[in-house]
Design brief:
This protein is α/β, with parallel strands linked by helices. The protein has a six-stranded parallel β-sheet with strand order 1-8-5-4-2-3, with helices on one face. The protein has a two-stranded antiparallel ribbon with strand order 6-7. It is globular. The protein starts with 10 loop residues before the first strand and ends with a helix.
């Protein structure tokens, strides 16, 4: 195994009724910015439980945070934090809300433009307003990592940033809070968490290691439990397993000793920066097509994946056949749970592919070294 450094300071309160911990966690803070999406938390009762825990504090609200959160919402939040001297940000929602809150937290501690500083110049985040989360959707894993993704629609860019000050102080994970999620969000979140695991699993080193064993277990867990959750949305065991698998998929655990990849995410970010599609749905299209393009030289790893995760009998297959069959099985899985498998299904116009490719800033990974023409070919391959 490669050498590694691991650090994750996030406190997790997990299980039904975990919201009871919120009042104690919030004791040190006086002025709170409550961030959330389009108001579903007011319909399902979560908002009332949060406000009960915040009783006696000065609470300001930033609502209407959209999927693929945009720079305008971050600017709005930064202004609220600075104008009211807010000392804590509480994100109630899924990854979009938490990512937006992290960008606000970092942006509120600088007089520079947050987008230029952290997303374009990639300056190190040295300080951030403390934040925590109450999770309502499993998928992004943002509740236990130190990064986030923001979209600049005008520039057609969807970029990531991060730094240790952006780790939540705590996150509250109650699987029952995901019961009322629309089916679309359940599917999208499932693809996202599965993709997170694959970004680490399909990277060097390829030889057997403990981290890959953990990744395989997570993938098997996701496969088993998504079908249960789709059939019975209020099945606590399935929802709990998906929620925790999502968190573990990107809290640093699956990257230990690995060189990581993340180009599938980079390819998808461009798609959603152009078309505002759901991140997970975009990944369902892009990740298998990326793997089809880069698997050569790593066939034995894909054979292992076929056998250990997909439970395929590869005894009569060559390594190349096993690799192709395993990627086809991934596409079948995504399709079987209701995710798209082509860019055409997402409404992408073929004549936009070259423009998209030019906006996709690729980099060398342990599995690939793509050039512009490679990116164009991958998007073309994914079109239909």
């Amino acid at each position: 195994m490669d050498a590694f450094y691991f650090y994750n300071p996030v406190k997790i309160h997990f299980g039904e009724g975990a919201i009871r911990a919120l009042k104690d966690e919030m004791k040190p803070y006086k002025k709170v910015l409550l961030t959330y999406g389009k108001g579903s938390i007011k319909k399902n009762g979560i908002y009332d439980k949060v406000m009960e825990a915040l009783e006696g504090k000065e609470v300001y609200e930033l609502s209407e945070i959209m999927p693929n959160p945009r720079v305008e919402k971050v600017y709005e939040g930064i202004k609220l934090v600075k104008d009211h001297d807010i000392d804590f940000i509480l994100a109630v929602g899924g990854g979009s809300t938490i990512d937006c809150s992290k960008a606000i937290a970092a942006g509120a501690k600088t007089d520079e433009d947050f987008w230029k500083k952290y997303f374009i110049n990639k300056d190190e985040v040295l300080d951030a307003t403390p934040l925590g989360s109450v999770l309502t959707m499993a998928g992004t894993g943002s509740e236990m990592d130190n990064g986030g993704v923001i979209t600049n629609w005008e520039e057609q860019l969807k970029l990531s940033f991060g730094g240790d000050p952006c780790y939540p102080k705590f996150s509250i994970l109650d699987p029952t809070y995901t019961y009322s999620l629309p089916k679309h969000h359940l599917i999208s979140g499932t693809v996202d968490m599965f993709s997170h695991v694959m970004e680490e699993y399909f990277s060097m080193p390829d030889e057997e290691n403990t981290t890959d064993e953990i990744s395989e277990a997570l993938m098997r867990t996701i496969i088993e439990n998504i079908y249960i959750a789709l059939d019975d949305p209020r099945n606590y065991r399935a929802r709990a397993n998906l929620m925790w698998a999502s968190t573990l998929a990107i809290n640093g655990l699956t990257s230990l000793s690995k060189r990581s990849d993340w180009l599938s995410h980079r390819l998808e970010h461009t798609v959603s920066a152009f078309y505002d599609v759901s991140h997970g749905m975009g990944l369902a299209v892009m990740h298998p097509n990326y793997l089809k393009y880069v698997y050569k030289g790593h066939e034995k790893k894909f054979r292992r994946w076929a056998e250990n995760v997909w439970k395929m009998d590869t005894s009569k297959m060559t390594d190349d056949e096993a690799a192709i069959k395993s990627i086809e099985r991934l596409q079948e899985f995504f399709k079987s749970i209701g995710a798209p498998t082509t860019l055409k299904e997402l409404g992408v116009q073929r004549d936009k592919i070259e423009d998209m490719a030019k906006k996709t800033g690729v980099y060398k990974t342990s599995y690939s070294d793509l050039k512009l023409q490679d990116v164009i070919k991958i998007y073309e391959q994914a079109y239909e």
